[in-house]
Amino acid sequence: MRHPSGQAHMNDQQFDRIAALAYSESGIRLVREKKLMVQSRLRHRLRALSIDTFSIYADHVTSTQGIDERRYMISALTTNVSQFFREAQHFDMLCDALLPTFRERIRTGQRIRIWSAGCSNGQEPYSVAMHLLSLEPSLADADFRILATDIDPNVIAFAQQGKYAPAQLKGVPKSHLHGFTMAHPDDGGDRVMSERLKTVVSFRELNLFDDWPMQFPFDAIFCRNVVIYFDQPTQERLWPRFSTRIRPGGLLFLGHSERIAEPGAHGFRSCGPTAYTKTAPSHFNSR
Ligand SMILES: C[S@@+](CC[C@H](N)C(=O)[O-])C[C@H]1O[C@@H](n2cnc3c(N)ncnc32)[C@H](O)[C@@H]1O
Fold first, then answer.
1. CA-CA to 161 of 20 to 30 Å: which in 110, 123, 183, 191?
2. Pocket of ligand 1, candidates 26, 72, 78: which has the most ligand atoms within 8 Å of its Cβ, to mutate?
3. Which of 253, 213, 216 is nearest to 125 (CA)?
4. Ligand 1 mean position to 105 CA, how many Å?
5. For the CA of 28, the nearest atom of ligand 1
6. Which residue's CA is the closest to the ligand 1 atom numbered 12?
7. Tens of pLDDT, residues 128-166
8. What is the pTM of this model?
9. Cα 72 to ligand 1 centre (Å)
10. How many angstroms does the Cα of residue 85 sit away from the middle of ligand 1?
């Protein structure tokens, strides 16, 4: 249906179809109170497809031919708010717990891996990289990588470019701005992440509810401010999967309002605000 304003209007039934699809595709839970937000975020998809009504859009996006549109729809519905050095106490915890191990691994040529799961525009993995490289510069020449993944292809493309406006760089310590970013030649104030950072951080599109192709254990997983968009049963599906991917003694960090209800049931022990140590053996061997 079209509103007198000429804009497409979404009714409850159309909202429910779209919300059910978003849930089954991405785990994101959309409640009816979000209808106006969903309507406004998807209007540009209707315009892009020259579709007049949400009824036709819902038919299209749920059909077999709608496979590409489902990706755009999820991208439009994700909330990508992030910032550099958000909840920075986790970076200190990471270094306090694991830097000695990392130094030993550098010495013996072993792999060091961190995963930023739900990395949005890249501020989180670049912050982890800056923090670790500033404390241990020899990581740059070691077998050290940060995998950064997100379901939203637009944020992955942005993060790969690694170019941020001054407002987005708020939170980056001055010394890191000079040490790890360069002024962008074209525009006033924008800065680009250095090649040193870009070599360490690899970005990939990945839905957390698809198969995970990574065949090695992580030393730490950051999955912060992501599961807040999922309901409890959906969150519970993730904990055992994260648990199998973290080395014993490794760390899982969640966002400030996120919790594992029963950490012990998944081989975790709480070790600080929204931080968990993996206590049980990993699914993968330790190399
Ligand atoms: C609010 S941002 C959090 C960014 C960063 N971790 C932080 O704390 O600043 C949430 C991110 O989770 C991603 N996301 C939501 N559902 C996802 C899923 N099923 N698989 C992978 N990423 C997902 C969104 O695209 C979004 O970029």
1. 110
2. 78
3. 253
4. 30
5. 16
6. 118
7. 999 999 999 999 999 999 999 999 999 999 999 999 999
8. 0.95
9. 15
10. 16
The residue whose C-alpha atom lies closest to atom 19 belonging to ligand 1 is 26
Instruction: Yes or no: say if 283 and 248 are a contact pair by the CB < 8 Å rule.
Output: no
pLDDT tens for 59-118 read 999 999 999 999 999 999 999 999 999 999 999 999 999 999 999 999 999 999 999 999
- Residue 118 in 3-state DSSP? coil
Question: Where exactly are the structural domains of the chain?
Answer: 12-77, 89-278
Q: Which residues sit with their C-beta closer than 6 Å to ligand 1?
A: 26-28, 78-82, 86, 118-120, 124, 150-152, 155, 207-209, 224-226, 229, 255
Domains 12-77 and 89-278 in one fold: no
Burial 53-89 (b: 16+ CB within 10 A, else e): bbbebbebbbeeebeebbbbbbbbbbeeebbbbbbee
- Does the structural domain 12-77 have CATH classification 3.90.420.10? no
| Residue 210 to residues 25, 107, 125, 150, 159, Cα–Cα distance (Å) | 9, 35, 21, 12, 21
The length of the chain in residues reads 287
Write the residue with the smallest CA distance to atom 24 of ligand 1.
Answer: 78
Ranges assigned E (strand) in the chain: 112-117, 144-150, 163-164, 181-183, 191-193, 201-205, 218-223, 246-254, 268-272, 275-278
| Fold that domain 89-278 belongs to in CATH | Rossmann fold (3.40.50)
Q: What is the dihedral of CA 146, 260, 246, 237, to 10 degrees?
A: -90
Please determine, for residue 284, whether its predicted confidence score (pLDDT) is greater than 70: no
At residue 248, the 3 state secondary structure works out as strand
Mean pLDDT, residues 29-47 taken together: 97
